[in-house]
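Narrative summary of target 7.
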Amino acid sequence: MKRFPGRGPEAQRKREGALFIAPWVIGFLSFIAFPLFYSLYMSLHQVKITVDGVEYAFIGIKHYREILIADGSLLYEELLPFLRETAIMIPIILAFSLAVALLLNMRFPGRTLFRVIFFLPVIFSSGQIVQEFITQGEGSLSIVKTLRLDEYLREYVPAGWAGPIQNVMDSFVLILWYSGVQILLFLAGRQTLPASVYEAARIDGAGPWNTLWTITLPGLVPYMFLNLMYTVVDLFTFPGNPVVSRVNTVNYGSSSALAWIYFSIVLSIVLLTLLLYARIEKWLSGKR
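Modeled conformation, tokenized:
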């Protein structure tokens, strides 16, 4: 029987896949692609707005040199401390969200209400609200002042890390607000693990602690890295981010160059996360 090209089941699947991805492609080309490459174009030019329009003078990578070499105060005095804060906040958020998700997976009265409560900050909190709470010092832990932990930090911790740790403790409660989506993802991942595996472990005499380390955590590895990816991207738009506020300036060329440098840093961290996940997944596959 003669087959006509483009009429088989494989071609049908390709057409269906193209239809599903078409809205994203159209949206990307319409609303993201042009601003993205236009900002790259402006980062290589001196942009001046006049009454007659916008004037562009090509200067190459001058803006990049000024940010990275000539005037590195923003990058090295503000961005690096923020990266240290992010390195501290990420494990706190992941550990807290994992613990809460495991608790919310248990059967107890009012479980649905507690799930809603932990997700409410994601719905109601905006960047301005969180920034106002941080400014008023409402997110700090009272135990920090009671035990004088800030004094111990300044005395025993290197100055490069004492400041970021202090900033994290001053907004600790608000940081936990950023765990709503992570809790939801961990909870969904926990519910994908089959109950028969836990039943077989109980029959073999395994306790809750053993099942946590041999079944639950290995099964949640993909969700851990999914949450890690989401948390990295989410924290780089944190209200206290010093780079985001510097990008929104009238110096369009320099701001565009700073945005691309910042984008490169975030992209590098995301790629390292993907590489780490691939290595750990390969290692876990070898142990199964």
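Residues 92 and 176 are 8 Å apart (CA to CA).
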